[in-house]
Design brief:
Elements: E1 2-3, E2 6-8, E3 11-13, E4 20-25, E5 30-36, H1 40-55, H2 58-61, H3 64-80, H4 82-93, H5 97-118, E6 126-127, E7 134-142, E8 145-149, H6 155-168, E9 172-176, H7 183-192, E10 202-204, H8 209-217, E11 222-228, H9 231-243, E12 247-251, E13 257-260, H10 266-275, E14 290-294, H11 298-310, H12 330-344, E15 349-352, E16 356-357, E17 366-367, E18 370-373, H13 380-383, E19 390-396, H14 399-407, E20 411-412, E21 414-418, H15 422-431, E22 436-439, E23 454-455, E24 458-459, H16 464-469, E25 472-480
Parallel strand pairs: 1-5, 8-9, 8-11, 9-10, 11-12, 13-14, 13-21, 14-19, 18-19, 21-22
Antiparallel strand pairs: 2-3, 4-5, 6-7, 7-25, 12-24, 15-18, 16-17, 20-23
The chain binds ligand TXE.
Length: 489
């Protein structure tokens, strides 16, 4: 059994409570590691270390270019530790190795290189005030200590999408991964030791939302909160942060619609729709979990969909030929099964799946790819985020009806449009209430392109310039060259 420590002030520390909690491998269902159960005392150690690093250490005095070099070195460190990081993340949350490696070999490293390059390009502007004796200019400045809280479905990706811009902007950080998948983030801290960052610039505490997360987001020295998680968790954290008026970025859940029109390329679209939800076992905030089919192609599309879903091979997330891995943790496994049970009684038709299974003798938490047809927009199945391998299929007749169903949701994270009519596609892309809209593709992302939600899917953005802007605050400086100030009265 591997036993981890938490990382703060440049040191590996034991939790002040002396307590640890188990981390389970979802493929076997067995505990494989012990994780520190941090509390407010540990959080205070980490936050004060980050505060010192920002206000007293070399980090705050570094030039943007020097900081850029450091951030770039973090990317190099990830590249050289990619094997171990991927192994631990798959072990900790069951994410398929084939879904983790591409990021650790390229686009997650690009996050560090992209923002490292942006560190010395955060130009302010000179404002034309029209007053000859005034020089007014703006500066973009870091917040100071950032609290970054991540979810269990993609710990490394979510952490890196926060770390790279926040550090390049000049902030220091205290990370708290989900209690369901903390180990890969701690391994990331080990990898970062190669980069030789000043002490206290990056710190990681582990533990539960209430015991470690709340002391972190309410700490007086924390200035910025970047949260990825559920709507409930996000609303709670935003409320707590508001008490001390902290700036907050929220990446929350989704119930993203896929709109398929009768002129769509059938086989490709079925692949795109299946690929938009089943490979991560639905455990992605942008999973396309609502399928809206135009009446004319409904039956043919569902038939093809069931054929493809039936081909899915559930199994070891380390194996290259595994189509769908396990559900990341037992709590969520039971949550998804409960959603399926409710849906069975909702009047929708269970077209395939719906069961917990043990592929190849695996003893962990597996659920078959599940498709419900004859779903109506008022059913919980069409409204609630299940965050599992469950697709809700609905029917529509025309563009306006499709749009109405698609936007009839509290969520607004992503949407997919499948049609050969580019005018229709662009028109709908403008009218869909979602932070990301895909046309004849789904699920892609890159460091340069902002992601984030509309409505209860959150606010603020990650990636792109928008992702950097959220870790900066703007200052306006007024310099007067006037030789005399008039008497006020
Ligand atoms: O969320 P939770 P989960 C969403 C996804 C799903 C959820 C799953 O849609 O709904 O996340 O993640 C900490 N004070 N996304 O169940 O419970 C908790 O410890 C402080 C969206 O983990 O909200 C964990 O670290 N912290 C996403 C984190 O919050 C608290 C991508 C998330 O936990 C806390 C991935 C509290 N009161 C998943 N309560 C996207 N949009 O990008 C919990 N936490």
């Amino acid at each position: 059994m591997e036993t981890y420590s938490y990382f703060a002030d440049g040191k590996w520390l034991e939790p002040t409570s002396g307590e640890y909690f188990d981390s389970e491998n979802p493929y076997s269902g067995e505990a494989w590691a012990q994780i520190p159960r941090c509390n407010e005392k540990d959080v205070d150690i980490a936050v004060r270390a980050a505060f010192r690093a920002y206000h007293e250490g070399p980090w705050g005095r570094m030039s943007p270019s020097e900081r850029g070099v450091m951030v770039r070195r973090l990317g190099d460190a990830v590249a050289s530790h990619a094997d171990r990081l991927a192994e631990i993340e798959t072990c900790d949350n069951g994410k398929r190795r084939v879904d983790i490696r591409p990021g650790l070999d390229s686009w997650l490293i690009d996050s560090f290189y992209y923002y490292a390059g942006m560190a010395d390009k955060l130009e302010g502007s000179v404002i034309p005030t029209g007053r000859s004796e005034i020089l007014n200019y703006t500066r973009h400045e870091p917040f100071g200590v950032v609290a970054a809280i991540t979810a269990w479905n993609s710990p490394l990706l979510i952490a890196i999408w926060k770390l790279a811009p926040a550090l390049a902007a000049g902030n220091t950080i205290v990370l708290k991964p989900s209690e369901y998948a903390s180990a890969s983030t701690l391994e990331l801290m080990k990898a970062f030791e190669d980069a030789d960052l000043p002490t206290g610039v990056i710190n990681t505490v582990t533990g539960f939302g209430t015991e470690a997360g709340e002391p972190l987001v309410t700490h007086e020295l924390v200035r910025k909160i970047s949260f990825t998680g559920s709507v409930e968790g996000g609303a709670r954290v935003a409320g707590l942060g508001a008490k001390t008026v902290k700036s907050v970025t929220m990446e929350l859940g989704g119930k993203s619609p896929q709109l398929v029109f009768d002129d769509a390329r059938l086989a490709d679209t079925v692949h795109g729709v299946c690929g938009g939800i089943f490979p991560p076992a639905g455990q992605s905030c942008i999973a396309g979990s609502r399928l809206l089919l135009q009446a004319g192609i409904y039956d043919a599309f569902v038939e093809k969909l069931l054929e493809v879903a039936a081909r899915a091979k559930l199994g070891d997330p380390n194996a290259a030929d595994t189509s769908i891995g396990p559900i990341a943790n037992k709590t969520h496994f039971e949550r998804v099964l409960a959603h399926i049970e409710r849906a069975r009684k909702s009047g929708a038709t269970l077209a395939c799946g719906g069961n917990a299974v043990n592929p190849e003798g695996a003893t962990g938490w597996f659920i078959e790819p599940t498709i419900f047809t004859d779903v109506t927009p008022d059913m919980p199945l069409a409204r609630d985020e299940i965050f599992g391998p469950v697709l809700a299929v609905m029917r529509f007749d025309n563009d306006n009806e499709a749009l109405e169903i698609a936007n009839d949701s509290n969520f607004g994270l992503a949407a997919g449009i499948w049609t050969e009519d580019h005018r229709r596609a662009l028109d709908l892309a403008n009218r869909l209430e979602a932070g990301t809209v895909y046309i004849n593709n789904y699920f892609d992302a890159c460091t340069q392109s902002p992601v984030g939600g509309y409505k209860q899917s959150g606010y603020g953005r990650e990636n792109g310039w928008e992702g950097m802007r959220d870790f900066l605050q703007t200052k306006s400086v007024w310099l007067s060259t006037a030789r005399k100030i008039q008497a006020p009265f």
